[in-house]
Amino acid sequence: NLKSPPCHERHHKHPLRAYNIMNWRVVILALAAFAGVEASRTILEPGVTVFEHTHWNKGPRVTAQDTIEVRFVMKSCPMKRAKLEEMFWSVSDPASLQYKKYLSLPEVADLLHPLPEEGSGDLGASEVVRRHLLEQPGLVAGGEGMVKITKTRDIVTATLNAQAAEGYFATELHHFAATSTWHAGKSLVRAAAAYSVPSALVGKVALVDKLLRLPRLEDPKVGRGHEAAGGDPEFDSCGVAECKGATTPQVLRKRYGFPSNKTSYTEGNGMCCTEFQLQGLDKKDLKSFGAKCGVEHVKVDSSTGLGGNLIPGVEALLDVEYIEAVAAPIPLSVINSISYSLVDWAAQLNDDDNPAPVQSVSYGNDEVQQESAEYMYECNTQFMQTGLRGLSVLFASGDQGVWGRTGRDGTGEFHPDFPAGSPYVTSVGGTDFAVPSQVGEETAWANGGGGFSNTFAAPAYQSNATLAYLASGVALPDASAFNATGRGYPDVSALAGEQNGYCVAAKGRFLKVGGTSAACPVFAGAVALINDELLAQGKAPMGFLNPWIYGVAAPNGAFFDVTSGNNNGGFGEGFTATTGWDPATGFGTPNYETMRDLALNSAV
After folding, report:
1. What are the two backbone dihedrals, phi and then psi, of residue 82, each rounded to the nearest 5 degrees?
2. Catalytic: which of 154, 319, 324, 561?
3. What is the pLDDT of residues 291-344, one digit of tens each?
């Protein structure tokens, strides 16, 4: 039954942790101090009280020549969202009669934001917002075409005159410049204080994205790696001096059992990488990688958003080169966002009637880093929509061990990642080889992100796994460092450490790069290969993977279990890998042939 239930509640009830009273007092005081905020206005994302970041230099305020693109995320009725979630779980659970009975984009749109009944006089929230913005003198930078509604009717994108936007949101907008040498030249416009919206939008808009959230920028993990004498020949198979002792396509094929250089693909299949850091691609680098490392097809078949060839970046090239090394020639698309915005990514998927069934995203932040309750809640709504459409969404788990991008802050508390800690995505962690430069058993990578969410409870599909780990007798960190009832992550892993870093062609040279930014596209490529065979048999793609991972794949040997190592980031306590699922490596790394066989044995 696709009919959307009625909605009688006016406001969301977020199933997230409550903000403490002190935070609310800070917000109230900040509002009172901000001149010009009318009583009829409502502050959005009130839990965010810090508007600067050490990785960004706060620069001048915006000028009359500046514009800013923002995305208004519509509130959804709690009962309709509950129906969405119920259907998401049913199409994702191999034990359900609705397994893989995915919905089309219009059907998903009708669940949360159905078109108003003809003659009702109701315009729908997104159309009300669109018209309201266009009615504000001098606010929209251009005509009606600068205010757009996604096909799912849940996001309104608007390009605004920046100075007018300051008045509209009752805040100050500043230019922020990245401090890192690796990210030199990157800048964002963000609010330097709380923002609010007028009464016309209250009850319709959950948040306005790209006003807040200054991400912590991490430099690529580039290093010399390990060059052990007598190492396996696969580690030198790219034939370039800079990649001696590196993880190569041949290493991945030998360890994980991936096929070598497919020559065809099934119509309707596809895979996608998303780049959030103004990361561009260079065709010469891709061609060089393919020629040296024995990958016959290394190319991007389509791309959306800004990025492209602007600034060739190591992270983007790593993503593309290694998802192609695993799964080419399955068509590859790239989604670009220069604004570090998950809502950007969601909006582009929400306007795509036929998105790639596999989405690999090597990006994240800590839950505590300006990730408001509203923001995480709305991102999770987007993740459920993708799963209901049959997409497999995978996120890298992070490269700072249990400490996250925040690092060790003196409290001893770990900093879980978002979105990797979301129950609605598949999180990919990292490993190293147990013996450097020898293809064989793996160990947890010390910097691999993993742990337990402070925001989301362990979902039903993994509650037995997390409880088993906590009761296994393995040495655990101090109980005050983590939330033992939280969603555990990662779910799975792949090679990621700098010990035998990935051989990457970037900016006209070769170098070794580590990180779960490599592990994520590698595992995503494995899923794309499985989808190819499923589609060839007339079956549906895998969709949201986790219920299958925990209920079918892991119990039947689909992963190489990683039972040694710790993800303490090189400092203090962390989580120790052990038999079965653990918060350092999940269930382990892909045993591809077994994964494929289990997936193909499904009736759908």
Report:
1. -60, -40
2. 319
3. 999 999 999 999 887 654 455 578 889 999 999 999 999 999 999 877 778 998
